[in-house]
Amino acid sequence: MNPIYFTVRWREKLVASCHQGALVFELTMGKYHVYFPDEQCWKNNVPAWATNQWKHFYSECSKWCAANKIPITLTPDALVYEEKRQE
Question: Model-level pTM?
């Protein structure tokens, strides 16, 4: 699988970037906490290129969270959207 790179952004966002694009997740500030979409929420909100990549993104995000001692919670109403690249 292709690598996914995570970047914390101001205003409670975690950006997950890969060669296909970038997805943005909810990350509470102060005391960091990632709210990751469950599979149904994922399918309803991500672009076509990411539809079948829930397991990969969740696994990589979970590893990143563990390495950074940040809790991660699966939730059916998590914020997730595609970040469009500037051209």
Answer: 0.84
